[in-house]
Amino acid sequence: MKPPPEDAYAQMEMLTRAMEMVRQNYVDDSKITYAELVEGALEGMLHKLDPHCEYMGKSLFEDMQREQSDTSEGIGITIALRQNILTIITVREDGPAAAAGVLSGDQLVRINEVLTDSVGIAEAMQLLKGKAGDEVSLTVRRPGTKQFLEFKVKHETLAETSVHDPMLLSPKMAGDYKIGYARISQYNQPTPRELSKALDELEKQGMKAFVLDLRNNPGGLVDSAVAVCGEFLPEGTVVVTTEGRVASQNPPPFRTPSRNGKEPRKYPIAVLINQGSASASEL
What per-residue confidence (pLDDT) applies to 235? Predict the structure, then answer.
């Protein structure tokens, strides 16, 4: 038997009554604007669904867009939930967190004075943000040693380079074959352009095969990941589709973009992944 249909109006009335009771009785009136309460309700609603659903407000969304552009202000880490624990997935080698001693795999226990046991990704990003020169205190648990460590890290302006270490592998590793290598740390706006440039340079050096390293890549912009696939697939190739409960509401598939007549690259490719490869890097 199907459950009886829900009375949406009754549920909304209960939510509205609760909101008005809070506004009338809560001691700190700076926290009970309609905007604050509605945002809190949205955060709670999505948090209740599963660990991957979170509400992203306007300011946090704008921060994320800045991080996906050519430069951003931050401490040089990416985070994700691993077994419901906030975990540092990547640490930029040239970033302030790496200089302080933070490692990939460290589990975030505290950000400044906020314990992270009930903090989601969106809220953690909000806690970690700051302007160049601002300091953030991190307490982490290092699983390998079971140590609890504290770091003070200053925000810096970081160039968002996501394609690292393009090179031909040494003859000791590749033998007589000229095998290229590059690592993508995260998919942001410049990634396809950077990878295309790196591949062009490696091909000029005689590259005949390529290793793409996506280990510890937490994902990023799906459009950029699809464009990277477009370096090796014919334009218009379907890379990924999204299927929801109602087929008529499914968005169009993601296809590789036009290459303006440039042929896709045709040589053997190996892709490296590990447990830290997630989201868009799984494409």
Answer: 93
In this prediction the pTM is 0.68
Q: CB burial class (10 A; 0-12, 13-18, 19+) of residue 161? A: middle
* Pick from 108, 104, 121: nearest CA to 51: 121
Q: What is the pLDDT of residue 70?
A: 55
CATH number assigned to the domain covering 163-282? 3.90.226.10
Task: Tell me which architecture the domain covering 72-159 has in CATH.
Answer: Roll (2.30)
**Which tokens sit at 1?**
């038997």
Domain segments of the chain: what residues?
72-159, 163-282
- What does the pLDDT look like over 111-129, one tens digit per residue? 999 999 888 888 898 899 8
Residue 2: per-residue pLDDT: 58
Residue pointed to by tokens 């697939």 = 233
Contact in structure between 107 and 140 (CB atoms under 8 Å) = yes
Tell which residue, 102, 105, 88, has the closest CA to residue 150: 102
Query: Facing residues of 164 across strands?
Result: 183
The strand pairing partners of 136, in sequence order, are 153
* pLDDT > 60? residue 1: no
Query: 190-195: long-range contacts at Cβ-Cβ below 8 A with a sequence spacing of 24 or more?
Result: 190/70, 190/160, 190/161, 190/162, 191/162, 191/163, 191/220, 191/221, 191/224, 191/225, 191/227, 191/228, 192/224, 192/227, 192/228, 192/230, 192/231, 194/161, 194/162, 194/163, 195/163, 195/228, 195/231
Q: What does the alpha-carbon distance between residue 74 and residue 163 come to, in Å, rounded to a whole number?
A: 18
Per-residue pLDDT band at 67 (split at 50, 70, 90):
low
Side-chain half-sphere of 75: how many Cα atoms within 13 Å? 27
